[in-house]
Amino acid sequence: MSASLLSAPAIAQTAGTAAKCDNPNALGISRLVEIDTTGGPGFGFEHFKQHDFLRANEVLLTFDDGPWPVNTPAVLKALAEHCTKATFFIVGKHATYHPEILKQVYDAGHTVGSHTWSHQNLNRKSMTPEQAKAEIEKGISAVSFALGAPAAPFFRFPALQHPPELVTYLGERNVAMFSTDLDSFDFRARKPEQVINTIMAKLKKFGKGIVLMHDFQHVTAEALPELLNQLKANGYKIVHMRAKDTVKTIAAYDEAIKKEAKLPTVSQRPTASVVRTVD
């Protein structure tokens, strides 16, 4: 592992996070790492073999496809109750649909990356290089636009399909790419127990890993409280990551996102104060 890619934070940072936790049985955060995304490093042994930064029994929680009503707030609640953090790979369209939920993710201290504009498989033969690039860049611009702040230069390819030319492109953009070590396959699950059992069985086999889940999936939101309990009971430790720098959007794609966003109005009142049930 290259020392220039990851550096441990000051001990005070981790201790400060733990000191604020009211749950004595919480997972918390055992380690915070900072990633230098220069050159577009890849992480997750399913596809990228160069950088293995997790120690024995360490877990990095990641969620794809949000933000989404009900499910993402439930995931945030479960993480907060365990005083721990995760990384969210956001679909650009969903960010524009639900910016208020995305801001909750960001404000809670989680790391926010991107997951394309509309969750297209960028490896489809019918997709031109220009279309694929637009999917990546509009996603990055949409996330930053919805947040009102730059996102992390972290990206995950939909369906874990990695066209070589786009891997090169992201490297030139200094955006890190994330695959996974342990796929929960939660989108196939019908019951929370299936999600929990899949993840715990794979962790028992491999001993550590970057875990891929989806806050878009209701079954995952249902599973997460017990999954976190089981991670704690089995001695696993949560690693949280942040980026050394933020991602830089491209002006042309920023403008494209603004044109597709909802028209602003003078009123900024919440819906609950504008509309009420009277009968």
Write the layout of secondary structure elements.
Layout: E1 6-7, H1 11-19, E2 31-35, E3 42-43, E4 58-64, H2 71-81, E5 87-90, H3 92-97, H4 99-107, E6 111-114, H5 129-147, E7 154-155, H6 164-172, E8 176-178, E9 182-183, H7 192-206, E10 209-214, H8 218-233, E11 237-243, H9 251-260, H10 271-274
Parallel strand pairs: 2-11, 3-8, 4-5, 4-10, 4-11, 5-6, 7-8, 9-10
Antiparallel strand pairs: 1-2
Helix pairs in contact: 2-8, 5-9, 7-8
Features:
279 residues, 3-stranded parallel β-sheet, 39% helix, disordered N terminus
What does this structure look like?
- Mean pLDDT is 90; it is low at 1-19.
- Strands 1, 2, 4, 5, 6, 9, 10 and 11 form an 8-stranded mixed sheet that branches.
- The radius of gyration is 19 Å and the shape is globular.
- Helix 2 (71-81) runs parallel beside helix 8 and helix 5 crosses helix 9.
- The protein is an alpha/beta fold and 279 residues long.
- 39% of the residues lie in helices and 16% in strands.
- The protein has helices at 11-19, 71-81, 92-97, 99-107, 129-147, 164-172, 192-206, 218-233, 251-260, 271-274; strands at residues 6-7, 31-35, 42-43, 58-64, 87-90, 111-114, 154-155, 176-178, 182-183, 209-214, 237-243.
